[in-house]
Automatic annotation (TrEMBL):
InterPro entries: CheY-like_superfamily (IPR011006), NreC/VraR/RcsB-like_REC (IPR058245), Sig_transdc_resp-reg_C-effctor (IPR016032), Sig_transdc_resp-reg_receiver (IPR001789), Tscrpt_reg_LuxR_C (IPR000792), WalR-like (IPR039420), WH-like_DNA-bd_sf (IPR036388). PANTHER family: TWO-COMPONENT RESPONSE REGULATOR. The modification 4-aspartylphosphate is found at residue 54. Residues 141-206 form the HTH luxR-type domain. It comes from the Bacteria. This is Two component transcriptional regulator, LuxR family. Keywords: DNA-binding, Phosphoprotein, Plasmid.
Amino acid sequence: MINIILIDDHIIFGEGITNLLSLNQNFNFIGFYSKTEGLDEIFENNRIDVVLLDVSVIPINGIDYCKYIKTKFHNPKVLFFTMHFDDLIIGRAMKAGANGFITKNNTKDVLFEGIEQIMNGNIFYSPDVEKILLKQYKHEEMKGLPILSSREKEVLELIILGKTSHEIADKLFISTKTVEFHRSNLLIKFDAKNVVDLTREAIKMGIVKINN
């Protein structure tokens, strides 16, 4: 049987996937966790074959956590399972050591196939992820400027100006939690550890310009 854990910060979604995986006789579902902290003991006490991992988990984002578990433990297979995807995030996830990348828009059959494929030593992408990769890069190395949504650009500009999450939320009429979500995604897309790195990279790439 394939030993699986799920790490996702959406509780209701996670509970649904837990029930789904638990019903499959080929899988031994070990647990669902909403944060990437305090899980070392789980890996040390169990042979984890597959980690289903979201990108936007806390306190360590999914991409950095993938790097961590790949080096610290017995190299478990990592299948990113997320609603957040573009070519840059997909590329960084795979460079972090992921074995596959699927989106939450897919059916359970795609999820099950992804788990089985990576266990057989293959790289697996869901059909919608394949379309993105083929359209944008056609087998070329993933590189280039981060692709930002209009909202991410607004949040980035305000972060560069030194605004707090609360101030950004008030300015854009969105919740603080939404701002934190965009902030986390921006750090991932720019491969930045903190706001200082984020600012430096955004200016260096010419995405944000500082007026003299």
